[in-house]
Amino acid sequence: MLLLEAGKSAIQVIPMNWYITLCAVLFGLGVLGVMFRRNAIIILMSIEFMLNAVNLLLVAFSAQRSDPNAQVFVFFIMAVAAAEVAVGLAILMMVYRNTKTTDIDFLNKLKW
Questions:
Q1: Which residues contact 60 (CB under 8 A, 6 or more apart)?
Q2: Of 54, 86, 88, the residue nearest 73 (C-alpha)
Q3: Separation of alpha carbons 62 and 93, rounded Å
């Protein structure tokens, strides 16, 4: 069990390099999901994965520097991501209702 030093939170005790590595891995997995998956729902989830990797890194930097400004920015990113998912899922539901698929290769026909 990790013993916390007096006055430091758990996020300040863990070295910054671990956060950077974790966020890079999470962001990379999100990029791979967007690039190689054909399901539109999985692509939306991968985008959320990338946004959460950035949020985690912002919170880690904010906690390390004891500056709450980045945490306000994270809240703004989460609000925009929630709106993006709501609109994206609504569009995907309507597309699925009409086409019975969420495969982006099939949805490519929506281009003009």
A1: 11, 16, 19, 20, 23
A2: 54
A3: 37
Distance CA 51, CA 45 (A): 10
CA distance linking residue 56 with residue 5, whole number of Å: 22
Under the banding of pLDDT at 50, 70 and 90, the label for residue 5 is low
Tell me which residue has tokens 């969420």.
102
Rounded CA gap, 97 and 29, in Å? 29
Tokens read off for 50: 């990338």
Question: What are the tokens at 42?
Answer: 């999985």
pLDDT digits (tens, 9 = 90+) for 58-111: 999 998 888 888 889 899 999 999 999 999 999 999 989 988 988 888 887 777
